[in-house]
Amino acid sequence: MEQAADLAAEPLSDDQVRLIVGYVDVSAAPRAALDTIAGLDRDAGLRMSAALEAFARRLDLIEQAGCDLATARFDAEFGRNLEYYTGFVFQFEVTALGSAGRIAGGGRYDTLLRSLGASGKIPAVGCAIHTERLLAAASGVGR
Fold first, then answer.
1. Could you give phi then psi for residue 50, rounded to 5 degrees?
2. Which one, 12, 29, 93, 103, has the greatest CB density within 10 A?
3. What is the rounded CA–CA span in Å between residue 101 and residue 138?
4. How far apart are CA 62 and CA 69, in angstroms?
């Protein structure tokens, strides 16, 4: 039914396509990405200020926790390929190790437990750490 509804929907306008492509192309340091996305929002008149403020606040909190965002990368095209994620997703990588350098990843999944039978929405966040990859990266294997 979803596919039939999608086929019956009006096609996206050229402006909408350009906006989506512009967003998906954002790949930069987190603060620069925030500025680029804010510019897209402003140019398109989307009024995403609440989401942009939440992103800026998250970056502030990450820095306050002692993480150097100069080495981090925001990539709008990145996503976890599990449909239960509902918000912020992340991955920690040691790029010099290739695919073996994907140390940890996770995100928010606020609707997962309800879909499994919980009586209400239960906010949640989680991650998985590949301990063998973490140990290899920490010991300098592959460098």
1. -65, -45
2. 103
3. 11
4. 8
